[in-house]
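Worked problem 6 (solution included).
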Amino acid sequence: MMPNRRAVAALINFNGKILVGKKKKDAEGFLAGKWHIPGETIEDGENNESALIRGIKEEAGIEIQVVRYLGTHRTPRHTEVKWYECIPKTYNIVAGSDLEEIKWVSKKDVLNLCKVEAISLWPKEIKEYFT
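Solution. The predicted structure is:
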C-alpha cells in the first residue's frame, strides 16, 4: 500500500485576481504543460501553512499569508490536498521550481484556463469559489 501523501494548494487572491502557474512540459504528473492553481507536497516535519509558504516562495518567488481553509480533495494517486485562500505579502512573481510560466488572472477566467480534468477533482467549495 502506498504511503499517505499530503499536499496543499493556494488560492492567492490579489484584488480579484488569482495566481496560476503553468507546469513545465517535462514535469511529473497529468498537469505537465498545463495551467493550474499552485500547490506543494508537504514534507516531513511541515504543517500545512509552512508547506504553503515554502512552496509558493519556490514556485512564484513571493511571500504569502494564509487566510483560511477552503476544502479538501483526493487525487487519483490518493494524495490528500487541502486548499487555502491566501493573500500576497510581496507581489513580484517569478516562475520557479517546476513552473515555466506564472501570472495573475481574473477570478472569472480561472475555470476557463485550468485543465478540466484537474477542475473535476476540486472540492465543491473551490468550484463554488469561482462561480
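Discussion: Strands lie at 6-14, 17-23, 35-36, 39-41, 64-74, 80-88, 99-106.
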